[in-house]
Amino acid sequence: MMSQKTIKWGILGCGNIAGKFATDLKLVPDAELSAVASSDITKAKEFSNTHHSKRYYDSYDALFNDSEIDIIYIATIHVSHAELSIRAMKHGKHVLCEKPLALNAKEAVKMIEISKQTQCFFMEALWTRFNPVFIEVLKRIKNKEIGEVNYINADFAFRSNHTLDSRVFNLDLGGGTILDIGIYPVFLTYTVLGIPKNIISSAILHETTGCDIQTSMIFEYPKASANLYSSFTSDSDMIAKISGTEGHIHINNRWHESESFTIVKNGTKKTIQLSKIGKGYAHEIMECHHCIRENKIESDLWSHQNSLDLISILDDVREQIGLVYPQEKSNLRI
Q: How confident is the model at residue 331 (pLDDT cuts 50, 70, 90)?
């Protein structure tokens, strides 16, 4: 078992999400940001200065070869997740990879295989799974506090101000709402109800780029259903509603990072507040540390199979709406 020494992190990709992650990393006592890497040396240096890493690189290989680093957080564009995660693990590094884990299930299978071969810890960075509110909501659902869950309504939608050359609209970079934000309501429903027996999906595709800018999904289960939605075209209240035979739970705005939820039962409402550490990334960081110290290659809370199930569901949704990425058309392989 790994000792309680400081766990040293590398961050690959120096964008907005990486910055939020690095800020929360400082709040975890046994974590240290050792090095960062970007294809742009100026960006790497600025990021390093802001977040006080010991080293910065303009080469991903330099980060992989840094002998001090225990685990690498991969925060690059979607299409690079599989390749970079595999390279990192082949260099003996544990990996926390931003969601989506991969473009599709085929890539995810290869990533998981490498984790098993190298015995490196590997986890998808679905930070919501480790949010204290989310954990408490799942506990109450499991304890049948609202009876049997029979309906979920959840979305992730906002009016995007990104330009058409942004990664979110670029199919070459894995653009569209499904992998970027649609993954959240799908994740919620899968975590509560499992894999649906049937999926019905519809989308509006951008007339220029071809990526989905609005996607509606209905998940059907033997005794439940879910209405899910993701959009770059309008704002939503971002409240997730989980209904059961004896009551319902609202995970309050913005549900994927909320610090409160409300139980409505027997004509009464009760709101429970649970604070996060920082923005909320600290909780997944602490889970990584726990798993590494226990010599685990996957988390019990968000396992390899969980990630594979989730991306497989997203594959089904994309197939229904006709969203295919160029890498898939050309049958490129890692």
A: low
Q: Looking at the structure, do residues 13 and 136 belong to the same domain, yes or no?
A: no
Domain of 225, CATH number, reads 3.30.360.10
207 exposed, middle or buried (CB, 10 Å; 0-12, 13-18, 19+)?
Answer: exposed
Calpha distance 169→206 (Å, rounded)? 8
Q: Tell me, what amino acid is at 169?
A: F
Q: Let me know whether 13 and 111 are in one domain.
A: yes
Q: Is residue 284 part of a domain?
A: no
Q: Give residue-wise pLDDT tens across range 218-235.
A: 999 999 999 999 999 999
Q: E strands, 13-98, where?
A: 31-37, 55-57, 71-74, 94-98
Angle CA 59–325–60, to nearest 5: 5
E strand spans, 53-195: 55-57, 71-74, 94-98, 122-125, 149-157
Structure tokens at 204: 């509006």
> Which tens digit of pLDDT belongs to each residue from 146-178?
999 999 999 999 999 888 888 899 999 999 999
Q: Parallel, antiparallel, or unpaired for β 225-231 and 149-157?
A: parallel
Look at residue 164 and tell me if it is in a domain. yes
- Separation between Cα atoms, residue 102 and residue 310, nearest integer Å: 11
What distance lies between CA 291 and its chain's CA centroid? 18
Is residue 330, in this structure, part of any structural domain at all?
Answer: no
3-class SS of residue 150: strand
Print the domain residue range for 123: 7-127
